[in-house]
Amino acid sequence: MKKVKSAFLGVVILFAVWVLLTDTSQQELFLGGATALLIAALFHSKLTVLGDVRLNPKSLVYMVIYLFVFLWELLKSNIDVALRVINPKLPINPGIVKVRTSLKSPLGRVILANSITLTPGTLTVEMKDEFFYIHWIDVTSDDIEGATKSIVSHFEKYLETIFG
Amino acid sequence: MELTGSIITLTGSIVLFLGALGIFRMPDVYNRMQAGTKATTLGTVLFLIGVSLGHPGCGCQGKIVILIVFILATNPVSSNALARAAHTAGIKLTDRSVKDDLKDDTETGEAK
Questions:
Q1: Distance from CA of B111 to the nearest CA of A (A)
Q2: By residue range, what is the domain housing residue A38?
Q3: If we measure between CA atoms, which residue out of B20, B22, B13, B62 comes closest to residue B42?
Q4: B66 vs A20: CB contact, 8 Å cut-off?
Q5: pLDDT tens profile B27-80
Q6: Residues A61, A136: one domain?
Q7: Which residues of B touch A145 (CB under 8 A)?
Q8: DSSP H stretches of helix in chain B
């Protein structure tokens, strides 16, 4: 089942990229679809990373919400860093903190680490088992729980539903 | 439409400028990476959106969507790799830093 799902997602992604890259004449669509199927059929054993994505209505809704949450955080982080940079006093209080994540799926963890890097004042430095080591430009809490709550939690609740 | 595109492109270039300023002003490699990653990501994305709005007839919107997805997916990964390499190579955090859990854990053998 997992293999079928990852192959299916592989076809969908490849075909979407093909449609975005080319015109939508009928011949090209047909050829692109055939090639996507061929690639997914040949490499389905390598595509297992996609098998962690859950495909139910709730998780699809959460994917859309997550995209907007993420873009909003990206905007906020840029304003945050810009304000710090143009402030003559350079108000930073940096340090590397440790946070805990409950995500198990590799793809989910990569997306979480990427999201952390692009959100206000945080940069993922190292991943080790259930811990992420994060460079935080303005350390406001000292222990693992406090840092986890303010950095990871608001993403994790969506990613847990999407990836399980 | 062309005006909107130009304004968005201009915003993107301002964001990129602030990122460059951040790289110049920040005290150590990790803080510089912070300024660099966020600003280049949003700056480039805004720049591309501005271009696609400013030239509605170019037929390049699909390609720009793909470019944005790739930038969002790969930019943080590269900065993560750089920061990790810097930390592994033993580059110190600035003196203003309050803590370094990764260094502490590496020394006690908890990480790596």
A1: 7
A2: 2-52
A3: B13
A4: yes
A5: 888 888 888 888 888 899 999 999 888 887 777 788 888 899 889 888 888 888
A6: yes
A7: none
A8: 2-25, 29-54, 61-88, 101-108
